[in-house]
Design brief:
CATH architecture of the largest domain: 2-Layer Sandwich
Radius of gyration: 19 Å
CATH class of the largest domain: Alpha Beta
Order of helices and strands: EEEHEHHHEEEHHHHEEHE
Shape: globular
Strand content: 25-35%
Number of strands: 10
Number of helices: 9
Structural class: alpha+beta
Number of domains: 2
Length: about 290
């Protein structure tokens, strides 16, 4: 079969947990979270097109750490969507993943890749499945898939599946830094000293840079102490961000990627150049978060 459509490219943005409180644990072992998350303009990219046979390939600076077999969440997303819609509606596709985000780094890279695959394939295959249907399929692949499908500023509660998109949330200038270490999410949760912390405080009335920065001072990432005990280099990344002038710095997710908040994009770019110069082996990216539609 000749390809019936030109390839389409989809951004799989980094997910940044600006704040992450662990508020409890369910009987099935899943932890309950309360998180403010944003998504950046920097991330992985998926190129998808109809093909004679299914194919999957990975390129990019972090391709070496990505499985290309059935363990990959992109392929699991493709297969789950195909099971839902039926083989007749879901012809073979070639998927090419450009892996620009570090693997196992606390920015939801694999989940965001899978979310981009679900969004992209549902469009390419012209499936009438809707946001709720995609979120239901996504949740079977991972607790943070539903928020990655939305990829806009939001509050996430429950196991990460109870979502409240935020209106009028601004774009934030960020620098992402990973000191070149991977951290196992399951190991971080195992090392968590206290699983039942208080929820996030109410968001500030003024959602601007200063209001958000001051609010962040009243919040935490409850996974950060455990992750830093496992990988002390996380502390080095946070120090580097503060030394480069970040107005606020914190670890994202379960680590080891950290973010710095800067007042303008130009200041963030200069800070990224400074950190790269001091730490040439680290992953460093200046970016902006996506604002509310």
């Amino acid at each position: 079969m000749e390809a019936e459509a030109k390839s389409q490219t989809w951004l799989a943005p980094a997910k940044i947990n600006l704040a992450l409180h662990v508020t409890g644990r369910r009987a099935d072992g899943y932890h309950l979270l309360d998180s403010l998350a944003v998504f950046t303009r920097f991330g992985d990219r998926l190129e998808i097109e109809l093909a004679q046979d299914d194919a999957f390939s990975v390129s990019g600076p972090f391709a070496a750490g990505v499985p290309i077999d059935g363990d990959n969440l992109v392929l699991k997303a493709r297969d789950a969507l195909r099971r839902e819609a039926g083989a007749q509606q879901t012809p073979p596709v070639a998927i090419r993943l450009e892996k620009n985000l570090p693997v196992a780094s606390g920015v939801g890279g694999g989940s965001s890749d899978a979310a981009a695959a679900l969004n992209g394939l549902s469009r390419l295959w012209k499936l009438d499945i809707g946001e709720a249907g995609l979120a239901r399929i996504g949740l079977t692949l991972g607790a943070d898939l539903p928020m990655c499908l939305k990829a806009r500023p939001l509050l996430a509660r429950g196991i990460g599946d109870a979502l409240s998109p935020l209106t009028e949330f601004p774009a934030l200038a960020l620098v992402l830094v990973n000191p070149g270490v991977a951290v196992s999410t399951s190991e971080v949760f195992k090392a968590l000293s206290k699983p039942d912390n208080e929820a996030l405080p109410p968001l500030p009335a003024r959602l601007d840079f200063h209001g958000i920065r001051n609010w962040l001072d009243t919040t935490r990432n409850d996974l950060e102490p455990a992750a830093r005990a496992i990988q002390p280099a996380i502390g080095d990344a946070l120090k580097a961000l503060k030394k480069a002038g970040a107005a606020f710095a914190r670890m994202s997710g379960s680590g080891a990627t950290c973010f710095g908040l800067f007042e303008t994009g130009n200041v963030a770019k200069r800070a990224a150049i400074d950190i790269r110069r001091r730490h040439p082996g680290w992953f460093v990216a200046a970016t902006r978060s996506m604002e509310t539609d």
